Write the C-alpha cells for this entry.
Amino acid sequence: MESGVQDWLHQCSLPNGTDLQEHTLKTEMNIIIGDRCSIDYGLKGKDVIVCEFCTLNGSVVADGDVRIDNWCEINGDVIAGEDAYLGEGVKIHGRLVVRGDLDIGDKVQIDRGFEAKGWISIRNPMPVFIYLLLYVMTLLKIDNPDEIDSALDELFGEEDPGDDTPLVIPPGSSLDMKVFSVPSAMRIGERCRLHGNIRANAVSVGDDTTIFGSLRAGGPIAIGRKAQVHGNVEGGGEVCVAPAAHVLGDVAGLSLSLHEDALVEGMIRAPHGVRIERGEETA
C-alpha cells in the first residue's frame, strides 16, 4: 500500500493545459510537490500539496486547500480558497490568506501576517503522506487500500496524462525559469505551454503542446501531433516525432522515427537509423 503511493510520487506528470509562464506554474488540477524540491517560481492550482523540506521562490495560490509539510520555505504569499494546513517549521516570507479554517504547527513563521476567516487550530496537522494516501483512495474511488497499486497503474499507465490526473513533481526535482529538471520520466499532457529546458530520464510530449526550450533525456523521447519544440531534442534512446510536429532545432537519438508530415529545422543524428512513417493523415 505505502510502496504504491511512494512509487506514484516518484514520477512527473503534467496534466492537459498546464501553463508555465510569468514565474507561475498553472493548472486547473491539483498540484503535488514531492519532498526536497527546489522551485524558483510560484504555483497555482486546485488543491496544492507541498511535501517536506521544499523551497519555493514564488507564491502558492489554491482554489481549494493548501497543505504545506514540515520545514518548507515559501518566498511569497500563500492564498487558500478553502482550508490551509501548515506543518512544523514552515516559513512564509509573504502573507497568508485563508478563506476557510487554518491548522498550524509549531515554530511556523509568517513574515507579513495572516488572515483566516474560519477556525484557527494550533496543532501539528495530519502527516502529508497519510493525507496523500487518503487523497489517492478518493481520487481512484476505491475503499480497499490493497487495490491502490493496480488502480495507480491503470490511472498513470496511459501514454499521456489525462484531465483527471494531478500535476505531480517528484522528490528531489529542481525547477527554474531556465531548466526544468526531474530525476524521473516526465509525461506532459496536451495543450501545455512550458518555458525552460527540460531534463528527465524520458520525456513524452502531448499533442498541441508548445515548449520554449530544449528536450534532453537519458532514455526515449516522444513528441506528439502538432507539438512545437523551440530548441534541440536529444534522447539517449529512440526519438519519435508525430505528424505535424515541429522541432525548431536539432534532433539526436540512438534511432529516430519521423513522420513525413513532421518538420525538423536542424540537423538529424541517429546512429541506429532513421525510419520515416507515412499515413495517418493530420487533422
In short: The two ends are 43 Å apart (CA to CA). The first strand starts at residue 12 and ends at 14. The chain has a mean pLDDT of 88. The CA atoms of residues 234 and 252 lie 5 Å apart.
